[in-house]
Amino acid sequence: MKKGDHLFLVDGSAYIFRAYHALPPLTRKSDGLPVGAVSGFCNMLWKLVEESRDTSVGVAPTHFAVIFDHSSTTFRNELYDQYKANRTAPPEDLVPQFAVIREAVRAFDLPCIEKQGYEADDLIATYTKQAIAAGGDVTIVSSDKDLMQLVGPGVILYDQMKDKRLGPEEVKEKFGVYPEKMIDLQALVGDTSDNVPGVPGIGPKTAAQLLDDYGDLETLLERAEEIKQAKRRENLIAFAEQARLSKRLVTLDCDMPLDTPLDDLFLNEPDGEKLIAFLKAMEFTTLTRRVAATLAVSASDVETAKIDVDAPVRGPDLDPAAASRPAAVGAGEDGAPRLALVPAMLVESRKGEAAAASFDHSAYLTIRDEAALRDFLAEATETGILAFDTETDALSAMNGKLVGVSFAVSPGRAAYVPLGHVSPNGEADLLSDKSVEEEIGPQIPLETALAVLKPVLEDPAILKVGQNTKYDYLVMLRHGIVVAPFDDTMLISYALDASASLSGHGMDELSERFLGHKPISFKDLCGSGRNARPIAACEIERVTHYAAEDADVTLRLWRVLTPRLAAEGLASVYERLEKPLMPVLARMEERGIMVDRQILSRLSGRFAQKQGGLEAEIAELAGEEFNPGSPKQLGEILFGKLGLPGGKKTKGGQWSTDVKVLEELAAEGHPLPSKIVEWRQLTKLKGTYTDTLPNHMDQRGRIHTSYSMASTTTGRLSSSEPNLQNIPVRTEEGRAIRTAFVAPEGKKLVSADYSQIELRILAHIADIPQLKQAFVEGLDIHAMTASEMFGVPVEGMPSDVRRRAKAINFGIIYGISAFGLANQLAIPREEAGLYIRRYFERFPGIRDYMDATKAFAKQHGYVETLFGRRVHYPDIKSPNASMRAFNERAAINAPIQGTAADVIRRAMIRMEGALDEAGLAAKMLLQVHDELIFEVPDDEVEATLPLVAKIMAEAPLPRVNLSVPLVVDAKAADNWEAAH
DNA sequence: GTGGTCTCCTA
DNA sequence: GTAGGAGACCACA
């Protein structure tokens, strides 16, 4: 080794674990030997070898070694017997792969280094030191922070997965200190995965700051007395020895004896035949092909190597008969039409068909040219059915770029059309002279594909079937295609099986439930966390398996689920309440709502200032620095250190510190709890709203939420990323956030909301004469209730009496319990029980309704809204009393909440058409359960308000004619706060 | 990094 | 007492 030489040291053990976790469990096809980690390892190593052959980069290695840990006990265990004591044994299916991976390294003709009693890190440290001494450079291929201490002149760390090279500046950026202080930093912080203790309460941020202030660990420990923060000071003093021990544990040994001298690590030209023989034996076809191409060796000429593996695990045999086994009764093409005359028969036959289904990934097509695409889509013209699914590079349909589309025309007949795939090697490939096409194969140009797809996706004679179609609809909408007509398996499932106990209506879940098949998960394809990579950079063959399978599964689900709609009388729910709402919501999401960034940032500033003041006061009152955001620490301060009374415990056995508890303490005259309450409120508003909302804004200053149509049991929508259905309104400070929701120049925001819709629906369903009368007369319903219950005249009623009645009214809707009402009103449970009894005496119809609903739910297993939406409560017959009671309350609430949800859905579905017909340009932007927000041109506000109110008020008609009026308040203003 | 717990925002 | 989503913290890998 001499000046100018370059040593690559691969942290092999870390590599193995990354490869293992990055890839789905894979087995060798012929004998079931687990080879997932081997495969990942070989791919990574090959990429590295390939990169290093590229001399143009100027970092090509002259020396190369792969370093492994040899055993679990090292000299560090003599220093500290707990070192790495919390490590668990490697996964069972990984163990047999260790030996194979060493074989792999030898097949690559690379030195494979390990030594008893030392960790790979020590070997790496020693080789690094020697190489630098000899005048060479070193690249350590790893991202382990334990190795950061080695970074310095001539030494960098290379994170291959992220394609990142770390020098001293990058280490500083990541950890706040330069590499030479990494050891001290690690000694302070400790390492949970290696069981290095460190100093309690010191994290990376604090450690970096301390080292910055005091220079090094020893100085810091000697001068610990000077530290202001009490807890920090105490810990540094108490745990000084522990820090010194930690330092010795994390310090790498760079002078260990080496069995293989540095100069023997000279890099050889890989022996193509040896490598290919090994890869063939492993049955890594793709990598074999790639290696063969690069090294110019014909893979078919090379004989497969004999790999000795002890006791390969044999997987279950595929049943070759399964595919040809006759489908269940009635599923045959001959029998089906006859049986299908009755919906229930069709349901049965389709169930049989689904149960007999088998999936063959290798049968899926990858379509790479226009002609093939046209041919495939022509099959849909024949059948009239086309399942389709889009793959994009982002989770949200509003941001995602189209990467590919997949189709299925009949069970098992599916294809994937890659459109926006890129090289799996990312930027590294810019340096090679191979074009993307040469590397990953041809793709149809996006515009060409869209031109072919448009007439099909818009063809009224072809039913497009999707799963969560709002996503695909939006993606295509952004490419100028309006998908129609369509069916949505998620929405069908939701209409059929909305249930409190079933978890959801996602495709994977439905597939397992109805097809008995677990599809390839997105994680399997693209990995997760740090190993995640964009789908566009995944191997197209694998994406085909994944994406075409999704379309195939969707089509099969559609075949099983659709007949049930008619058979179970739920077609109208699906056709009238679900399907037509999807495009409406898609358009609302696409529009987004305009937000004033300045207002939010001003609020953030104001909140931050108050927050800072409060933090100082809190520390003062507590007598020490602590994190007021940690309920655990707060509980210890309040009830432990300060010894305040009235502590309650939560489920987790900790002190409860919610607002109620804190307010009780405040009422007793303690100053700290009220400061905490105030701090929490500000932190919440700042952290959840004013700081976060700007991150969701697009270039035009608009926020696009995403509505989920199938994630509540009752039929309500939910909103996420961001959730715009929980923007504060209760407090003045919170309401200020709503002033940031604005309309652009020349327009106003209109908010229209139903007044007391759930109580009105309750009055109608339970048929309560007094309530109905009060609504007809337009009285104050809570005051009326109070008057009935407590005999207090409405005129001059004390606000507290009305407040109680209001709480009871809400309680009824929620399936009242004495416990809950007592909690809400902060009164004894006996008193709450008394109120409830009196309520039932005054309004006996309510009790009848509740009893009847419970009985219905027990008998049928579900309850229904006025529009026929069903919500299932299988657990209402649970032997567990509290679970039963919970289901009873939910069953009482669901028809009320669900009917209200149905009503506003109907209004939304009709709204666009009505506005259109009236020649109004108002655009619906948001829904918040009983409120709709519109953007309206200034000069149309006057005409829009009454129309919107009318559509909303008349939404139940003609299907349901409520015996109470629905009242809608509509208002226009410059921002949401003023319009509400 | 992931998942659970706690807290808090809405109708 | 109903129905949601989300951020922060913390223990576990």
TrEMBL record:
<keyword id="KW-0235">DNA replication</keyword>
<feature type="coiled-coil region">
    <location>
        <begin position="207"/>
        <end position="234"/>
    </location>
</feature>
<dbReference type="GO" id="GO:0008409">
    <property type="term" value="F:5'-3' exonuclease activity"/>
</dbReference>
<keyword id="KW-0540">Nuclease</keyword>
<dbReference type="InterPro" id="IPR020046">
    <property type="entry name" value="5-3_exonucl_a-hlix_arch_N"/>
</dbReference>
<dbReference type="Pfam" id="PF00476">
    <property type="entry name" value="DNA_pol_A"/>
</dbReference>
<comment type="similarity">
    <text>Belongs to the DNA polymerase type-A family.</text>
</comment>
<keyword id="KW-0239">DNA-directed DNA polymerase</keyword>
<comment type="subunit">
    <text>Single-chain monomer with multiple functions.</text>
</comment>
<dbReference type="InterPro" id="IPR008918">
    <property type="entry name" value="HhH2"/>
</dbReference>
<dbReference type="GO" id="GO:0006261">
    <property type="term" value="P:DNA-templated DNA replication"/>
</dbReference>
<keyword id="KW-0227">DNA damage</keyword>
<dbReference type="GO" id="GO:0003887">
    <property type="term" value="F:DNA-directed DNA polymerase activity"/>
</dbReference>
<keyword id="KW-0234">DNA repair</keyword>
<keyword id="KW-0238">DNA-binding</keyword>
<dbReference type="GO" id="GO:0008408">
    <property type="term" value="F:3'-5' exonuclease activity"/>
</dbReference>
<feature type="domain" description="5'-3' exonuclease">
    <location>
        <begin position="5"/>
        <end position="268"/>
    </location>
</feature>
<dbReference type="GO" id="GO:0003677">
    <property type="term" value="F:DNA binding"/>
</dbReference>
<dbReference type="InterPro" id="IPR002562">
    <property type="entry name" value="3'-5'_exonuclease_dom"/>
</dbReference>
<keyword id="KW-0175">Coiled coil</keyword>
<dbReference type="InterPro" id="IPR029060">
    <property type="entry name" value="PIN-like_dom_sf"/>
</dbReference>
<dbReference type="InterPro" id="IPR002298">
    <property type="entry name" value="DNA_polymerase_A"/>
</dbReference>
<protein>
    <recommendedName>
        <fullName>DNA polymerase I</fullName>
        <ecNumber>2.7.7.7</ecNumber>
    </recommendedName>
</protein>
<dbReference type="Pfam" id="PF02739">
    <property type="entry name" value="5_3_exonuc_N"/>
</dbReference>
<comment type="function">
    <text>In addition to polymerase activity, this DNA polymerase exhibits 3'-5' and 5'-3' exonuclease activity.</text>
</comment>
<dbReference type="Pfam" id="PF01367">
    <property type="entry name" value="5_3_exonuc"/>
</dbReference>
<keyword id="KW-0269">Exonuclease</keyword>
<dbReference type="InterPro" id="IPR001098">
    <property type="entry name" value="DNA-dir_DNA_pol_A_palm_dom"/>
</dbReference>
<dbReference type="InterPro" id="IPR036279">
    <property type="entry name" value="5-3_exonuclease_C_sf"/>
</dbReference>
<keyword id="KW-0378">Hydrolase</keyword>
<dbReference type="InterPro" id="IPR020045">
    <property type="entry name" value="DNA_polI_H3TH"/>
</dbReference>
<keyword id="KW-0548">Nucleotidyltransferase</keyword>
<dbReference type="Pfam" id="PF01612">
    <property type="entry name" value="DNA_pol_A_exo1"/>
</dbReference>
<dbReference type="InterPro" id="IPR036397">
    <property type="entry name" value="RNaseH_sf"/>
</dbReference>
<dbReference type="InterPro" id="IPR002421">
    <property type="entry name" value="5-3_exonuclease"/>
</dbReference>
<feature type="domain" description="3'-5' exonuclease">
    <location>
        <begin position="364"/>
        <end position="566"/>
    </location>
</feature>
<feature type="domain" description="DNA-directed DNA polymerase family A palm">
    <location>
        <begin position="734"/>
        <end position="940"/>
    </location>
</feature>
<dbReference type="InterPro" id="IPR043502">
    <property type="entry name" value="DNA/RNA_pol_sf"/>
</dbReference>
<dbReference type="InterPro" id="IPR012337">
    <property type="entry name" value="RNaseH-like_sf"/>
</dbReference>
<keyword id="KW-0808">Transferase</keyword>
<dbReference type="InterPro" id="IPR019760">
    <property type="entry name" value="DNA-dir_DNA_pol_A_CS"/>
</dbReference>
<dbReference type="GO" id="GO:0006302">
    <property type="term" value="P:double-strand break repair"/>
</dbReference>
